[in-house]
Amino acid sequence: MTLELLHLNTHQALQYNEALDHLGGNHPYYKLEFLDIFYSGIEGSKALVMKSDSGKPVVVMPIYLRPIENDELSDHYDVISTWGYSGPQFHSNLEPENLEIFWRLVDDWYRENGIVSEFVRFKLDNSHLYYSGTLVEGMHNIKGKLKDPEIIWRNYNRKVRKNINKAKREGLSVKLFYADDISVDIFGQFYAIFEHTMDRTHAAASYYYSYEKLKAFMRNNPQNCALVLTFKDEKPVASEMILLSEDTVFSFIGGTLADYFEFRPNEILKDEIIKWAYRRGYEYFVLGGGYGKDDGIFRYKQAFFPKDICPFYTGRKIIDEKAYRYLSGLEDEPINIREDFFPLYRKPNASLTL
Questions:
Q1: Could you tell me the pTM of the whole model?
Q2: Which of 279, 254, 164 is nearest to 156 (CA)?
């Protein structure tokens, strides 16, 4: 087995796409245009690819390689996984020992190339198994198992059923737009509601995802996304972009016009997504988690799938402890890798934040 680093802002992006195609899964969070939306965009996007002795890709993991902006360690970096659900991508029948080999090769590469630390957000599919660092179970996520809509309706929290019925009495309707159905006008309606919601909630600048980059993602990956809009008297009042893999629908981004909360446009929107996904043969609907562990947002999502709670793991690893302590302003103090902000030297407002 060998390990190779690919630079995704170069012609090596073709090798990355070919490796993903070989492994299958068609995961939206691994698409080049998706990676371009976050952090430093495609310029900072890399991928670690483990190949067999015959040259076939066995494991692929996209990462962002971030430079350490410190004069003493100018040739050092840290690694952060891509946004959302990430970590290694591999065939479901991969032998466990191959994952152990992958992480051993990764750690060797890190030590040889001045990597100080690594932070990984793992998918909800056991991709965290055999990780060579410290696993931290974070916020719970909802990964709903799709069943016959009548069964799902009965499993909804009573408040969800009540709000969907209210929305129907108020005359709300939902339309889902997929592939060629997504026009420039429909995308504009979705984005206007999303932007309104970011303004209303005083969201950080990093959450204002680029109009052009989102549109490029949809244009180049039409099978991996859909737009869902709730209408009141033909006016779009709530919207959501969902992402699609081979077997899973992911709730991604969206919003609601503040003046229309009382009509409960979001519950009926989620209900229509669930029915559409079931009809098309998807197995799961991932609604995600909250901003904090088991907070109000999480409980809202749980009301749709009360029993389908899934752990979400992050991986934390210090490769160069001396450099980590120096950057974090630590001397002999113990490092609480599970509970401290990680990596500590990138904590917002910290004296040595990079």
A1: 0.91
A2: 164
